[in-house]
Design goal:
about 45% helix, DUF1013 domain-containing protein, elongated, TrcR, single chain
């Protein structure tokens, strides 16, 4: 399948099916489509009502190239080359965000600003498809809805991928390190990707059977305010209930 497709690829495929003897594979490769989809166009099951778009008349294909393709079924058609169009396919701009998710962008920007302050406005703009004035307003807490915003992970909202976020964070921290900026422990933890952090062994924990013993201590002598321990032998019931002799004498004197 070709890397570059002609403009109005489906309409071009319709025209080629109706006006040439090219094979389905040739048309599919040239238009960036599946061979079965081109067959569906030829059968009238796909692209019903689509008007054909002549690639020769619209400078997408030369007549010479078209003749070569019809003469040789194994020939792969080549899109007409434009020197001025070199690099245009890498057009830079903010990421497109579906209408259903645009209302979630301020919350995701708030999350990125709060938990990843090392990210630049340009990086945040590429991650969630927003503008720098909006990011600046949330940073400075001048956004019109700042009091109602709750930070939400943009990955959870589907605005970007976790791998994209990890790459942006690592790039930002690497740039800061190259410029001589010191990183805190929290920032160093952010350098670890989510996949790596999930694979780390958990920190060793103290067994529950001995938990709390680190604050327990034994004293050899009782404290002054503690009651003395009764050391009498209680195996003999008579000796246990027998009062001391001095207690009997005191009782007699009272009588």
């Amino acid at each position: 399948m070709a890397d570059n497709k002609p403009i109005m690829a489906k309409a071009t495929a319709v025209w080629l099916c109706d006006n040439t003897t090219l094979t389905f594979k040739q048309i599919a490769d040239f238009c960036g489509m599946h061979e079965l989809e081109v067959q569906g166009i030829a059968d009238g099951d796909v692209a019903t009502g689509v008007k054909g778009f002549d690639p020769v008349a619209n400078n997408q294909l030369t007549q010479e190239e078209l003749d070569k393709g019809m003469a040789d079924p194994s020939h792969a058609l080549k899109l007409k080359f434009y020197k001025a169009a070199v690099g245009e396919e890498k057009r830079r701009g903010p990421r497109y965000t579906p209408l259903s998710k645009r209302q979630d962008r301020p919350a995701s920007i708030y999350w990125l600003v709060k938990f990843h302050p090392e990210l630049s406005d340009g990086q945040i703009s590429k991650l969630v498809g927003t503008t720098k004035p909006t990011i600046q307003a949330i940073r400075e807490r001048t956004h019109w809805n700042i009091n109602n915003l709750e930070p939400i992970d943009p990955v959870a909202l589907g605005l970007c991928k976790q791998s994209e976020l990890d790459a942006a964070v690592q790039k930002a921290n690497a740039k800061r390190a190259a410029e001589g900026g010191a990183m805190t422990d929290d920032e160093r933890r952010k350098l670890v990707s989510t996949e790596s952090s999930l694979g780390m062994a958990p920190e060793p924990k103290m067994p529950s059977s001995i938990a709390g013993l680190e604050t327990f201590s034994l004293s050899e002598t009782p404290e002054d305010d503690e009651e003395p321990v009764d050391t009498r032998d209680v195996r003999d019931a008579d000796s246990f209930f027998k009062l001391p002799e001095n207690v009997d004498a005191e009782n007699d004197d009272e009588d």
